[in-house]
Amino acid sequence: MFQVLIFVFLFYCIFDFLYKNIAYRKWEGPWAVPLLGNLLHVSKDAHLVFSKDQKKFNGGKFGKYWFGDSMVMAIFDANFMREIYLKHPESINTRLKSPITSILSEKYRGIVTADENYWAFHHEILSKSFSGKKIKSIISSIEKETDSLIGHMKFILKSGQNFETRNNLMNFNSNIVFDYVFSRRIENIYEGSSSEQSQVLIEIRKLFDFLAHFKVQNFIKILKPFYYLYLKIFGHPNDNLKKILFKYYLEHCETINLDSPRDVLDSMVIEYRKFGGKEEEKSILAMSNELILAGVETNSIAMEWFIIQMINNHKYQDKIYNELLEALKSNKLTSNSSNKIKLSHRPLTPLFNASLRETMRMYPPIPYGVGREVNEEFEIEGYKIPKGAHILQSYYSMFRDENHYNEPNEFKPERFLLESHSNNYFPYGIGVRACMGMSMSQDELYISLTNILLNFKVSSIDDKPINEKPNFGFSFRPNEYSIKLDFR
Ligand code: HEM
């Protein structure tokens, strides 16, 4: 009996090996091993692996990989991505289906993870909730939180300590998103409160750490049901966060005034109820969960990378400081007499704007985007893309492509002053399913980072450059670091 099993297993491995390497022969990619496919090939620093592979496969457009049993097309070329995302949006309008995302999204009922059945409906609900005229303005939340962060940084400086970036910036971003979505903001968040919201940050980190590595059991068909059961029984790393958010949802339902929504959660409930409230509970839980996950980690990482660039390329820090002073002066000549940078200064700060773009070009916070799954076959440039294939966007390869960026590994913000690069720079994605939080994120990064540079000179603790080796995962984090602050 045992021998038969071994024989069947060997036969399956041979069949699997041949299938993975012979099917879709027209598509080039590294050799796939039985069962795992190319998971080992991409398991460490996949961004660098993709960049190397870009030179080898399919004229630099994409590479074919097998993640277990899933065939993955990793796009390396910005023009090729635009062709697919802008010409065939309806064919790639669903996300990757796996045990991990199925549980996280309450069976694809979220927004980031929504499948083709839920997406249009949930996109409409959330768009209306974001643009709700009656709820608080996100800009005032951002300005208030920026004041609070800068106040804390002044305190740190005066008390002779270094400023630790990871926790503080996550606290900053979570306070804004929580205020906007749930009307929950913690006054003394930087002083290390033991509140529930601190627990939320721990849960977010836990989940991103978990998502950082490709899990074999998430990709092999035969193992998927067992892995799903395992996560259901022993817990998914998102469970605790969802429990907290569900409590907020119930509290909102008890106190909501349908004529006067307070925040995004109230607006979502109101919009949902216009359609009869069917599946409201699970859908709103999944959507608010994903807003927190999408909003906190991404912006914190972008801020961390920007601060690193200002330290490692300090001549830009001084130039930007002068630019900010000039912007304040010229605004004072008109009407605004405040000594804070506001969104209205944005057209007056081109070097800052270019430096932020350059930072996100070199270190896109979501380095391979949020994967899509092909829901109907389509053809592009002679390649037939089959239903069920997965699509990843290797932003790292696209944004460091020598065909578009001269000296792509150098921090050169001037390149964005000379050219917009709008055809080959899109860290928030493109097309109908691009990031829904893009303008919120850009406003938040603008207000916070300009005001930090206006108030402080930032430098490394040992006067050496800060390590720029990214930790590849679902997000693209630098190593944790602290900085020295000086008053301007
Ligand atoms: C630096 C910050 C951010 C970056 C780089 C970023 C990037 C992305 C990317 C690459 C996608 C996938 C797009 C695609 O599939 O083509 C996405 C989707 C999404 N993002 Fe962001 N994001 C950021 C911040 C935010 C914030 C602050 C929010 C809101 C709180 C947010 C909400 C969303 C949502 C709801 C989606 C799903 C859109 C859909 O599937 O229709 N993001 N984001």
TrEMBL record:
Its main location: membrane. It is found in: Membrane. It comes from the Eukaryota. InterPro entries: Cyt_P450, Cyt_P450_E_grp-I, Cyt_P450_sf, Cytochrome_P450_fam2. Its cofactor is heme. GO terms for cellular component: membrane. GO terms for molecular function: heme binding; iron ion binding; oxidoreductase activity, acting on paired donors, with incorporation or reduction of molecular oxygen, reduced flavin or flavoprotein as one donor, and incorporation of one atom of oxygen. It is a single-pass membrane protein. Keywords: Heme, Iron, Membrane, Metal-binding, Monooxygenase, Oxidoreductase, Transmembrane, Transmembrane helix. Heme binds at residue 435. Belongs to the cytochrome P450 family. This is Cytochrome P450 family protein. It comes from Dictyostelium purpureum (Slime mold). The lineage of its organism: Eukaryota, Amoebozoa, Evosea, Eumycetozoa, Dictyostelia.
